[in-house]
Design a protein that fits this description.
The protein is mainly beta. Helix content is 13%, strand content 46%. The protein has 4 helices and 16 strands. The protein has helices at residues 3-7, 9-12, 162-171, 187-195; strands at residues 22-23, 33-34, 43-47, 52-56, 60-72, 80-83, 86-89, 94-97, 99-101, 104-117, 122-127, 130-138, 141-150, 153-158, 182-183, 201-207. 20% of the residues are buried.
């Protein structure tokens, strides 16, 4: 498993079961690869809750988290200590500046994450107006994310529910007494999965002018 796919684990693990849905090849099958993002996708997008921003250019998708997080002082464990406007972490003597309001603290969260870049462990394909971001999870195992842009709204969608696993098991005629998370699907079966509501876990972003 590459370091890149390890970082992506949080996005693709099925809730409560600890297993990501994987495919035997980049999806959809028998669909040509795209080696750069098209110009119509270029730009900056902000999430509906304004906590994160997506930036797309020819070579990569970057996600930036930038927001204030309010936490009750009582919820902090003993490894944290507040002195004035500073929150100290006992391990490693790390600290950060904060704001305090009554019994709560406000921390500013800022981080950057590359959601997709073109290399040997990623494949981009387009099908039925959607872009499919394929990530190599392990040998012959690919995780897939769907991206769509319609009227200035960018959506990023994952396979993250048990219902979707059930649909894939039915489509691939997996034995009734077996639950699989690794699938070999045809292009027709993948299209059927989309029609039946695959990629349900969706984040929405508005294109900024």
């Amino acid at each position: 498993m590459t370091k890149k796919t390890l970082r992506l684990l949080i996005f693709f693990v099925i809730a409560g079961c600890g297993s990501p849905v994987t495919f035997d090849q980049p999806q959809p099958p028998k669909t040509r690869e795209i080696h750069r993002f098209p110009r119509q996708l270029f730009g900056k997008y902000t999430s509906f809750d304004s906590k994160s921003t997506i930036i797309i250019n020819e070579k990569f998708i970057l996600k930036i988290y930038d927001y204030d997080l309010m936490t009750s002082k009582d919820s902090l464990d003993k490894s944290y200590k507040i002195k004035g406007d500073t929150l100290y972490f006992r391990e490693g003597d790390n600290y950060e500046l904060i704001k305090t309001i009554h019994d709560s603290i406000i921390q500013h969260v800022y981080s950057k994450e590359t959601l997709f870049s073109f290399d040997s462990s990623t494949v981009l394909k387009k099908f039925k107006g959607n872009y499919f971001l394929n990530y190599l999870w392990d040998k012959d195992k690919w995780i897939v994310k769907k991206m769509t842009l319609v009227k200035g709204i960018l959506t990023l969608s994952d396979i993250n529910t048990r219902e979707e696993v059930t649909i894939l098991n039915e489509i691939t005629e997996t034995p009734a007494d077996t639950i699989s998370y690794d699938f070999e699907v045809s292009k027709k079966q993948f299209k059927q999965f989309l029609k039946l509501g695959g990629f349900r876990d969706t984040d929405f972003f508005i294109k900024m002018k």
